[in-house]
Write a structure and sequence with these properties.
This protein is α/β, with parallel strands linked by helices and 305 residues long. 38% of the residues lie in helices and 21% in strands.
Length: 305
């Protein structure tokens, strides 16, 4: 059994006019092919839709039941071109985006806010994840893009694109009990305090940058705790467990007992960038990258740092 949209349009025209002749005129056709089309529709459905007499027609109970469903199907069919066009232009669709915790205090909120203002019908799936986990998710095509801390491993540089989004200085987060020391803007002032830091395997570049800061100050820090989320690190600082070097935007995270100190001697920054699969043709992803003023098709890069 095949029911065509054309047949449903013919049926609704007859049901509205309750007259085959007027319905045929409305449809810009002659009456015989209209009557034949309705008969074929009735045969396909296995039941009459109209009762006919020499002077009038009337809808059967089956015909009455078909009217709302036929109207719904035709309305859906009429909306298909616009639906497809909006999907093709990135107005609708889905974006799965992972992010490191430090992006939540800097680039992520304003980018999401701006994207949502212009693409409010796009569903966004957010996932907080460390850089190493994001690389695995990208490798397996489980997310569209990730805001992460480079570098990108050589084995993935063939399939991933990467673009820098933000670079910001490191500052010191310390318990407020230690702010009254002499020379508070020097790292060596706090050499006796243990360090709270990310595990190296999840952010090797940031880990190495932080340790380079201590080496330049002539300090070998004692690591008291490791944590994978920035809010946990700041929570441990608040508890008096030690100090931490964090991106400047983390100072937006307020915790009782935590003070953020700019250290002029530090000449270190942390970079956040966005990575995505080179083969990903999602229009929604291209639209999001355009928001970041990133071209989705960049020249092939062998090695990315």
């Amino acid at each position: 059994m095949t029911i065509e949209l054309r047949q449903l349009r013919y049926f609704l025209a007859v049901a509205e006019e309750m007259h085959f002749g007027r319905a045929a005129k409305k449809l810009h056709m002659t009456q015989p092919p209209l009557s034949q089309a309705i008969q074929i529709l009735e045969a396909n459905l296995g039941t009459p839709l109209f009762t006919r007499s020499t002077r009038s027609i009337a809808l059967t109970s089956a015909g009455l039941a078909l009217i709302p469903e036929a109207s719904r199907l035709l309305a859906q069919a009429d909306s298909l071109p616009r639906l497809v066009q909006r999907a093709a232009s990135g107005e609708t669709g889905h974006l799965s985006l992972a992010f490191v915790s430090i992006a939540d205090y800097s680039v992520l909120p304003p980018y999401l806010r701006q994207f949502r203002q212009h693409h409010h019908e796009v569903s966004i799936e957010l996932r907080e994840a460390t850089s190493d986990l994001q690389l695995s998710l990208l490798e397996n095509s489980e997310i569209d893009a990730g805001l992460l801390i480079p570098p990108i491993p050589d084995k993935l540089s063939e399939i991933l694109e990467y673009q820098k989004v933000l670079s910001e200085p490191l500052i010191l987060a310390l318990p407020d009990a230690y702010t009254k020391r002499k020379n508070p803007d020097s790292l060596i002032t706090y050499k006796d305090l243990p360090l709270i830091i990310f595990p190296r395997k999840i952010a090797p570049a940031l880990y190495d940058t932080i340790f380079a800061c201590f080496r330049e100050a002539g300090i070998t820090p004692e690591i008291s705790q490791e944590a994978i989320q920035m809010q946990t690190i700041i929570g441990l600082v608040s508890a008096g467990m030690g100090i931490a070097l964090v991106p400047q935007s983390v100072s937006n995270l307020k915790r009782p007992g935590v003070v953020y100190q700019v250290l002029p001697e530090l000449n270190a920054t942390v970079e956040i960038g966005i990575a995505w699969r080179r083969e990903n043709t999602s229009t929604v992803l291209k639209t999001f990258l355009a928001l970041l003023q990133i071209k989705p098709h960049t020249p092939k890069i062998r090695k990315i740092y």
